[in-house]
Amino acid sequence: MSIPSLSFATQIADVTTFTNAEFLQAIEWDRNASDAVKEAARRGSVAAFTKAWHANRRVTGAGPRASAGYGEKSMWSRQAYPEETGLVAIISLAAGLPAKRAGNSARRPVNKPAATWQQTVQPVVGELIDAISSEETRPLALLAALELLDQSGHRLQGEQFFTLWRATLTELMNWPAANLSDPTIPPDVLLVENGEIPFVGGLVFRDVANSVNLIKSGRKQLSKELVERTDTDGTPHADIISRLSLWLAPLIRATLASERFGVTLWSDDQRQLLGNVVDRAIVLCRPDGRGALANGLGLDSLPVVSAAAGLFGLSLVHSTGAYLQAVQRAIAGKPQKRSRSEIATMPSSQSDWARFAVLRSDWSVNADSVAITHHRSLPQLDVTALGRPFIHGDWALKLKIGDADIELADEWSCVCWQSDPDADFIELQMSGPGRLSVERLVMLSRKERFLFIADSVSGIPILNSGSRGRSAGSDVRIPGNRTLAGTRQRIEYESRLPLCEGMVATCAGPTREGKISGSRFKARVFPLGIPQDRVLSTPHEFSVEGNDLVLKHVVEGEGLFAPLLFVWHPERTRVDATWRTLTVTEDGRVVGPDAGVGYRLKLGDFQLMISRNLKKTGYARACLGHHTFNETVVGKFDSNGDIEPILMVE
User: What pTM does this model have?
Assistant: First the structure.
């Protein structure tokens, strides 16, 4: 019987009937493979081949854990393959990864000796062989097998090693590439299956003929994905933020493999770019180790970013490195080290291209932060206060003008970004039909522990007489509008903010103030555009529905402004609060709330003034004696009663 030649050049036929000797004899070897390996394979001697294969590998590390892995780095991608729960449980148990305790009955008896490494790894090897040899494609199993062979193959027993080695090579020779054009496949899955597995597989089996083709293919996909999914400063695009640690995992594992094998994976510029991505990922790591904006996945990003930080040498001299160490200490229950209070490097960042921004007060684990994506019709927010997440999810918006529901655009544009020692501020814009414009404002104070968010709607036309649904000075009709000519149109607005699990909100007191509470956390919410006392009638409403904060405004005019102010400063969660709407004037005349608004909030001895111009006329506006041409102003009162600006937007 003729034996086919096995290599990475073509997909192979069924080799399950081959004996181990026949399988070795069928392999076509690379010209650089060692003579001992080729000779042992030619003779079909499994024992001699295994010995020669290990002798050709450089074993690193001295301790039992230095090179005795169980495939645990592949577990960084476990949530990309939720169907692999059985494999994940076996590897996690062997590697001692965090898992739910089975109770006291599951603990090892005191007098029973600890299992050896070979005993512990046996169920892992058995599960991997079964998974890889099955008819269905098992990417996570193949990934774990490659890692185990690379890092711990020399410690496996001869039969264990060769059975796993043969099954892995057979699967790799027939490895199907994922469909790059399928939009339902997450980018991190494509990276694993089209990038990491070919690249690392080619390195592990580099002695097999044509393995260089596999390495080149994987390297090309890894490089392409890194460049196309990140901005030039390393900011990842908003569409991968929710799975950032899953997307980063194959890049880091492939980089570690390239260094172990002494192979170049990245150009100098690409390596710098990847390092910048790691910087951004660390900032998005919450104090509990989970990633921000994970959309309920609960991704544990700490193992990935910790390995990446070691890879790129981020130490205490780097702000991100210091923050990462603070997170590690917090999770370990260790006290935080003292650090300087001043900010050497701003912890905030924004990218127009990535449709993503991070607003952050400082580098501590108790920092306040807002992560926001705006690449879809609804921006997403992830808000932490004092290091505790309390808002997470879609910032929902409904807008109705007359009897026409306004359809939101596919994405929002960032029209303003400011970051200074006082505050971070971002303004997003969506242009609707005609002159309609919707802006979403987010401002995070860097010193005073408050968050200001608002929606600004402007450009609503007053209809001309004799027209139906046609705006003044414009030929653009708001679709479906049947408002009578010559009237100011009715605007119905609603926004929703989802609270994180564990947070409880109430809004049932004598005032319209809202309160949020959680484990060791309290915050207050002030709907500044609504009268404070419930005895004052208003068409507006601020309420709690389920776990959502709901703000509704109903007005008639050319626009509206709907603000919310969150305060969690420990000294201001119990003090008396009062707020009111201020009069705004222009050239000695009072302007309506669809042209300009102002608010004043008093919390104990702390007072804020907020103003917004919705309609520009070329004249300065005055609010509480403060004259300004600026579109948005947020200021606090000093001890003399003068307004000290925190934010001024032209």
Answer: 0.89
